[in-house]
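Reminder to self: keep the SMILES exactly as supplied, no canonicalising. Ligand is fe (ii) ion.
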Amino acid sequence: MALATVTIPSLVRAELISESASQPPVSCDETTQDYYGQGPFYSTNAPLIINNQLALADELGTRFIISGRVHNLDCTEYIEGAIIDIWHANDAGAYDNTGFNLRGKTTSNSQGFYLFETIYPGKYLNGSAYRPAHIHFKITPPGFPILTTQLYFQGDSDIPSDAAASISSGTYEATHRIVPVTTNSLGQKEATWDIVIDGSGNPVGIEEMRATMGMIYKIYPNPFSDFIQINYGVFREAKVSIQVFDIQGNLVANLQELNLTPEKYTAEWHPDSNIRSGHYFIALKINDVQVHYLKVIKEN
Ligand SMILES: [Fe+2]
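Structure tokens returned for the bound complex:
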């Protein structure tokens, strides 16, 4: 019996890792400051972002959704209440230096998540060369210093020649701030960026926990309207729950809470009719530790 218990999870684990190969790896690299610091276009007192829309609906450009989680330096905790001050250029590469268009603040929610929707930033000349597309951030975790940095996007041909984005080691290393961009079925670009910063918060699973405890490996359809199916694996006998949070961090649904043995499982969410369209996070908890989450989009 003991042998079987050992064998089954290792088989499941190998299969799940190969199925999840296309997902971005979880890293715990401390988020670095950018060589250019805040640059010349920062404005203080940007307003709070309303309904997670940094760009209004009529803003020219490709819609771009950025989400992630704020972690402490070794990723053992997630940080709620971190203030994330964001600003970037418009589709034509211009900053609003008189008002607050494409400038705003949001806060990591009670689960450490943040999300905002904007447009893909345009490029502007820095001397004779274009800077790569980028978004500026000032991140302030409660009780800890501000980190000022910039986020870049994979495949941008202006990264190698940029004095800041091309730095691959040391204090201003930008490698882990160049994130992949995907396009969802609505034609919106999406990127995930986990912020790793000095701070303190609540315990969270780390990658090793995911490999030894369990993970979500597929959620579909996404976007969805009437129901969504969550396929996940459990690698040790444990109390397992699947929870849905809205972007404010409110618990929207508790899909399962079961004692499970190591195996692959499926859960479904049939949202109540009062569940609004928008973004939600689906989280896998094992023995009350959140080991994995994925973001989904609900349509009407
Ligand atoms: Fe800039």
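Points to follow up:
The CA atoms of residues 66 and 191 lie 5 Å apart.
The longest helix spans residues 2-19.
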